[in-house]
Amino acid sequence: MARRPTIADVARHAGVSRTSVSFALNDRPGIAEETKERILAAAAELGWTPSRPARALSLGKAGAFGLVLARDPDQIGADLFFPAFIAGVEVALGERGDGLMVHLTTPEREESVYERLAADRRVDGVLLTDLRHEDPRPALTHRLGLPAVVVGQSEWSDGLTSVGLDDRPAYVAAVRRLAELGHRRIAHVEGPQEFRHAHRRRSAWEETLGDLGLPPGPVLPGGFTAEGGARATRELLSLAEPPTAIVYGNDLAATAGLSVAQELGVPVPERLSVVGYDDNPLTRYTHPPLSSARADARGWGEAAAQALDRVLAGEEVAHVVLPPAEFIPRASIGPAPRP
Amino acid sequence: MARRPTIADVARHAGVSRTSVSFALNDRPGIAEETKERILAAAAELGWTPSRPARALSLGKAGAFGLVLARDPDQIGADLFFPAFIAGVEVALGERGDGLMVHLTTPEREESVYERLAADRRVDGVLLTDLRHEDPRPALTHRLGLPAVVVGQSEWSDGLTSVGLDDRPAYVAAVRRLAELGHRRIAHVEGPQEFRHAHRRRSAWEETLGDLGLPPGPVLPGGFTAEGGARATRELLSLAEPPTAIVYGNDLAATAGLSVAQELGVPVPERLSVVGYDDNPLTRYTHPPLSSARADARGWGEAAAQALDRVLAGEEVAHVVLPPAEFIPRASIGPAPRP
DNA sequence: CCCGTCCCGCAAACCGGTTTAGTGAGCGCC
DNA sequence: GGCGCTCACTAAACCGGTTTGCGGGACGGG
């Protein structure tokens, strides 16, 4: 196959210098309209597009963002947050022809991946998701000189710009609704507490119960997984005084919980109300349909990418706050059973 | 922040030329052992790593692969094939420090994404997944001079190297097992037939029934979605002679189908046997646990990346065949009900 | 002692863009 | 008519690596 054309080929073909081709392409002043058209026509005819690596080298910009996911692969597949989030990032990036480098790794190797990303200068900045307590990454990216944006609450961002979408209101609304329905023993199956969002969900549950003057029901770890959700549910339902409602950290655990309840002959919602989080497409089709919460993951991705853009442009970017997650009541909740 | 060190800084620091630094780094002969150590020490001390863009420019290699997903975001999130697949690709790429550019797009814009990928020279090659009938991509990548590997059966690859993992045996085994259990009316809820794998699954079901001398049961589209699976199941169960077993195109549709059966008061597996595909982590925790099929998506990703590596190295790569998917019977199947 | 080899290492060119620092032509103005 | 300006364009340097081609010193053999 023929060698790809370079800027020199276009210049020759249009009878101008390489400089002019570059100027014409980038809409810089100093090129006569007529010449510019001739250049662009030549480029089109030869099918020339500037080489990204070459452009990246002279501009000192890679033209790509990085996203490092350090969950176990099993868990990543579980929720559809990431695909939607990535789709949103793509919307923001796609216009400029930039791209997203996705690195899936294990928690142990996480730091080295960021280090390599920074050392390589393969990305211009990174999006930090799934923040943990004492998360090393804000400091790490700062030390590495790697621009970053935190995808989460501003309190977690450690000085970085954040793009937040609050999941708390959905939990507050869910717990309040359950209380309205007469529930007094409302349990929580929490996600891994090292994650700030998992912890935040638990706090929302706990504090809302407190505000309502209700005792905190039992809490069990569900690990955001089907297995964890099933095990926790089994344990909760075998208590002397089982809860009449369970609020899960995510839909996967909740769906598994729904199956366990059914297996144990506990009718939902007659004897147990169930609430998930994520609005997984499956939740509308479980039996009964699972109450959940919806967050605009796609919009989140788009906003995060735009924020990182502005950070890279050197702007002082304020924390971005997106509309919060919304509680979606469905048939999996109902009035508390009579004692 | 200080400017990042370049190869010239390392050369100066070690008292050698840039050439020597490059040679030392790339293990090329012609550098004395002692000198090499001094160079590497200098590099380490300055914290220098070669810049990817610069390297990409001189080598004419981007050091990255591309993966374009053209499903609707909702559908991508649904199965955990991609996260596991990407994790596998990462394993193969990570060793060399290469990366994966993921582009999530819509079917309409798919071709232009490949065109840009090729024009930009931002990736060295692409992995083609989700092949369709009359898929334009093998010809497109060939025309664009963009090296590619087909993730799927060799018959689909149109001359490209393929890395296949056969899902057929799992379907054959499932249908045979159902027949053994006495089922005679075995339905199929198929995925979108423009996808070759969806079509292949349907053919496996159909041909196995034929081999067994059984009439093909009803087929309905399920679109690989929860909604489609639920709708198809509802329709199947309201037939005058409803099937006693349903084989779904994937777990998502099957899980939704399970809920519908339950909602309609059709006990599983007593009156209806159900089989999915993908071995989604949830399937072990549905009620009853869903029979499914397991394929090593991670290994698939790793093998695909390695194959693309070898294609890029100019080797003649034969079609790679991985161990086929395996049927995983669980409690969602049982003996056919007595008429 | 001289010459051919081998081993090391360097200068310079190159990859394909962008950008800086001019150059020359044309024009208005006094 | 000469000066200064603007406009359109270009030559050359630069980004940070890799690679080619060559030179100098040590060593061994004749």
TrEMBL record, chains A, B:
InterPro entries with a match to the protein in the record: HTH_LacI (IPR000843), LacI/GalR-like_sensor (IPR046335), Lambda_DNA-bd_dom_sf (IPR010982), Peripla_BP_I (IPR028082)
Domain HTH lacI-type: 5-59
GO molecular function, one term: DNA-binding transcription factor activity
Classification via SUPFAM superfamilies: lambda repressor-like DNA-binding domains, Periplasmic binding protein-like I
Gene3D superfamilies cross-referenced by the UniProt entry: 3.40.50.2300, lambda repressor-like DNA-binding domains
Keywords in alphabetical order: DNA-binding, Transcription, Transcription regulation
PROSITE patterns (UniProt xref): HTH_LACI_1 (PS00356), HTH_LACI_2 (PS50932)
DNA-binding is among the record's keywords: yes
SMART domains, per database record: HTH_LACI (SM00354)
Pfam families to which the protein is assigned, alphabetical: LacI (PF00356), Peripla_BP_3 (PF13377)
CDD domains, alphabetized: HTH_LacI, PBP1_LacI_sugar_binding-like
PANTHER family: ALANINE RACEMASE (PTHR30146:SF155), LACI-RELATED TRANSCRIPTIONAL REPRESSOR (PTHR30146)
Protein name: LacI family transcriptional regulator
